[in-house]
Amino acid sequence: MASAADDAIAARFRIEDLELGSPPAVWHRHGPVADVVPALLELPPHNSPGAPRLARSPVSELWLPGDPLR
């Protein structure tokens, strides 16, 4: 979980994985807002060259709607 006011967590998921209880992310970053937001904005659109496609392990520190509150 974010531990300071300037911490951020961002992730990208495949639409077909969103029905899973804890979907694996194809991309994620955790760190200062000043680092995470530009990295998120630099991501290529889904299905375009250079866009992340391979699902990784679930992002444990990211809460998604439907997940139990911690």
Short account of what is shown:
This protein has 70 residues and is α+β, with helices and mostly antiparallel strands.
Tell me about this structure.
The longest helix has 9 residues. The model has no long low-confidence stretch (mean pLDDT 78). A two-stranded antiparallel sheet has the order 1-2. With 70 residues, the chain is α+β, with helices and mostly antiparallel strands. It starts with 6 loop residues before the first strand and ends in a 29-residue tail after the last helix. It is flat. It is built from one helix and two strands.
Shape: flat
Arithmetic mean pLDDT = 78
The number of helical runs is: 1
- Computed structural class: alpha+beta
Number of β-strand runs: 2
Beta-strand proportion = 15-25%
The SSE string, one letter per element, is EEH
Instruction: Give, in spatial order, the strands making up the sheet with the most strands.
Output: 1-2
Distance between the first and last residues' Cα: 10 Å
Low-confidence stretches: none
Output the radius of gyration: 13 Å
Relative helix content: 10-25%
**Biggest beta-sheet profile:** 2 strands, antiparallel
Secondary structure: elements and pairs:
Elements: E1 7-13, E2 25-32, H1 33-41
Antiparallel strand pairs: 1-2
Key descriptive features of the protein:
single chain, 70 residues, alpha+beta, two-stranded antiparallel ribbon, 1 helix, 2 strands, 13% helix, flat
